[in-house]
Amino acid sequence: MFELLKAGGILMVPIVACSILALAIVLERFWTLRASRVAPPQSINELWRWIKKKELNGRKLKALQGSSPLGRILAGGLINAKHGREIMKESIEHEASQVIHDLERFLNPLGTIATITPLLGLLGTVIGMIKVFAEIQLAGVGNAGNLAGGISEALITTAAGLSVAIPALICHRYFIRRVDELVVNMEQEAIKLVEVVHGDREIDVEGA
């Protein structure tokens, strides 16, 4: 592997660095964007039971706020529920904007890696071909060994760049879709909470 990286030339260094960074982001986002962490059903069901039995208090609100990103959004709305529907909605939207920002963390760098690694590979290809033509100019086409070195460098960097970019792009698109799904789910729960608190909807929770 080291010989392969060495044969690819200096541009293999940033390509390898991008691959390590992309892997770290992918693993972190897979762990962070789990539905059981972002919007745990048990916490939400417990909230509905608290509301139905009128057991909601400051301590439980604080526990809800720290339980999950969705809990943070709902707690933000409940804290200001007494000020009316519009203020409650504004509080939910304010908390939701911060939560969504956290959910999208590192996705821009992952997209950037998916974009620049093929370009780095292409740059390596150009550099390799420049070396090939420089060798031809100096020694002619008779020295096949030297020509093969430049061609090999060109092909290795291209392959390495694409090998990093393709999985990074797939994961980036997947995480964007995943965030969208989580946001829709949280939005539905927030709307339900506003309607329940202001008497427009009955609580229907199994076991509540």
From TrEMBL:
It is found in: Cell membrane; Membrane. It is a multi-pass membrane protein. PANTHER family: MOTA_TOLQ_EXBB PROTON CHANNEL DOMAIN-CONTAINING PROTEIN, PROTEIN TOLQ. Residues 68-187 form the MotA/TolQ/ExbB proton channel domain. Pfam families: MotA_ExbB. It comes from Marinobacter excellens LAMA 842. InterPro entries: ExbB/TolQ_transport (IPR050790), MotA_ExbB_proton_chnl (IPR002898). One of its GO terms (cellular component) is plasma membrane. This is MotA/TolQ/ExbB proton channel family protein. Belongs to the exbB/tolQ family. One of its GO terms (biological process) is protein import.
